[in-house]
């Protein structure tokens, strides 16, 4: 696999703990505090069960992701593993993800940060404006380099875990069995549809593989980090959701708006403030921080392949960070947040849907690669530290593909049913833009005598 000049400047400074913090931070982040109430309003007291169902595709996806990442840890790994299947599909999947992150995930978590910031100070503060400020802060953090970014991520991870554990420990005694009835107040259909909204809760961390080029001894670290991180994520989510719908009637959650008011049922004012700061604000911050990091690395790789202009992936010699890519991300995310927050009737739901649509696509392609590539490229399977039979890898990967497809369709149906069909249209428009850009760029490069990249050849 060819390593381009800018990519070679990235530094291997992420430890095992840092990698786990990245994985957990990309999962237990803004989604927990922004989408839990939305999902509870859809599915009611069955929220914990919906969470378990939504986690199954991501748990299955650990198999192909572990196989690839322990064989060849690399920068922008999701894109490169997709390339093993089909280079054109890989770019379309990753560019669609990029667009969904820029208008979905980052605005979602920044908006949520602003909402909880408003809760903390009980002031009439515009959450979108606060969101832009926090985006600017973590834009600067990422400009300072991966070592500082990873160290800050680890510290924030520890603070966040303390706040979430406090919520669970103090909340469990207040859980009431009667709050879990009726289990499916909106019907089984809405319960199943809610799994689509919850997909991002466990799926985001899989993109920790995209920092493989900066992980110390990546092939060994990923074998333990992915499983450890997923175990922490699923366990914490399940407990938090049990407390959320068990300590408060589900039909009262929507009116309360945030988890802060639920925490107020069993926490003192001082502890509620700690939960807002250490839980909600830090959770959003960890996700915003690492999304900046991961997406900008994608610019480095794709620019190195000439698909994006060279300057988009340029890495500073001293900082080791792709500063132009980070700048582009910040500008587009800030603009998306301000525009969609001002015109959207349900901005959080819109942002959440776009995030889920964006994640499902490339994860499904990686799983498809996991089902097919080992039989065509035996060297990858042989080098992997994750040793199970090819047939089992294929069976698990195909199952994940089928479940991901089902969740995608359910999410589409849910968005249409609540009159947010615009999100479905936007996703397919993003796919079309990605395809048109790829083939347009291919024609431009062909005229210059430059060949588009094919499947990566790992050495």
TrEMBL record:
Keywords: Cell membrane, Membrane, Transmembrane, Transmembrane helix
Pfam families for this protein: AA_permease_2 (PF13520)
An annotated GO cellular component: plasma membrane
Residue ranges of coiled coil: none
Location relative to the cell: Cell membrane
Keyword Oxidoreductase: no
Domain of life, per lineage: Bacteria
Single Gene Ontology MF annotation: transmembrane transporter activity
Membrane topology of this protein: Multi-pass membrane protein
Ranges that cross the membrane: 16-40, 46-68, 89-113, 125-145, 152-171, 191-213, 225-247, 274-302, 323-344, 350-372, 392-416, 422-440
InterPro entries assigned to the protein according to its UniProt record, in alphabetical order: AA/rel_permease1, APC_superfamily
Keyword Transcription regulation: no
Name of the featured protein: Amino acid permease
Organism of this sequence: Candidatus Zymogenus saltonus
């Amino acid at each position: 696999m060819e390593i381009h000049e800018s990519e070679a400047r990235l530094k291997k400074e992420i430890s095992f703990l840092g990698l786990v913090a990245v994985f957990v931070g990309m999962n237990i982040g803004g989604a927990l505090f922004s989408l839990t109430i939305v999902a509870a309003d859809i599915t009611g007291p069955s929220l914990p069960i919906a969470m378990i169902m939504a986690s199954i595709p991501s748990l299955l996806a650990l198999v192909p992701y572990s196989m690839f990442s322990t064989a060849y840890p690399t920068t922008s790994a999701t894109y490169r593993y997709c390339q093993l299947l089909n280079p054109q599909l890989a770019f379309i999947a990753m560019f669609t993800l990029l667009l969904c992150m820029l208008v979905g995930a980052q605005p979602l978590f920044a908006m949520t940060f602003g909402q909880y910031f408003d809760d903390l100070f009980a002031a009439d503060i515009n959450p979108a404006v606060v969101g832009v400020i926090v985006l600017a802060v973590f834009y600067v953090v990422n400009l300072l380099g991966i070592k500082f970014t990873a160290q800050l991520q680890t510290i924030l991870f520890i603070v966040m875990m303390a706040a979430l554990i406090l919520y669970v420990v103090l909340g469990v005694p207040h859980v009431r069995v009667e709050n879990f009835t009726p289990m499916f107040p909106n019907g089984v259909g809405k319960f199943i549809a809610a799994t689509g909204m919850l997909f991002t809760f466990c799926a985001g961390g899989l993109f920790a593989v995209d920092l493989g080029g900066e992980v110390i001894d990546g092939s060994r670290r990923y074998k333990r980090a992915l499983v450890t991180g997923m175990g922490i994520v699923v366990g914490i989510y399940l407990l938090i959701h049990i407390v959320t719908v068990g300590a408060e009637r589900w039909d009262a959650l929507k009116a309360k708006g945030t988890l802060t008011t639920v925490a107020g049922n069993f926490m003192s004012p001082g502890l509620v403030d700690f939960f807002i700061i250490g839980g909600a604000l830090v959770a959003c911050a960890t996700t915003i921080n690492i999304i900046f990091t991961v997406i900008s690395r994608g610019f480095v790789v794709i620019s190195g392949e000439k698909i994006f202009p060279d300057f988009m992936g340029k890495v500073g010699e001293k900082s080791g960070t792709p500063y132009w890519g980070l700048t582009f991300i910040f500008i587009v995310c800030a603009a998306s947040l301000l525009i969609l927050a001002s015109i959207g009737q349900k901005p959080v739901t819109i942002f959440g849907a776009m995030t889920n649509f964006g994640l499902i696509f490339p994860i499904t392609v990686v799983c498809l690669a996991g089902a097919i590539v080992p039989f065509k490229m035996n060297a990858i399977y042989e080098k992997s530290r994750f040793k199970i039979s090819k047939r089992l890898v294929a069976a698990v990967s195909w199952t994940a593909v089928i479940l991901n497809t089902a969740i995608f369709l359910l999410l589409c149906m849910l968005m249409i049913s609540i009159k947010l069909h615009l999100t479905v249209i936007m996703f397919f428009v993003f796919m079309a833009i990605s395809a048109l850009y790829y083939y347009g760029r291919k024609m431009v490069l062909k005229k210059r005598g430059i060949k588009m990249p094919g499947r990566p050849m790992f050495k």
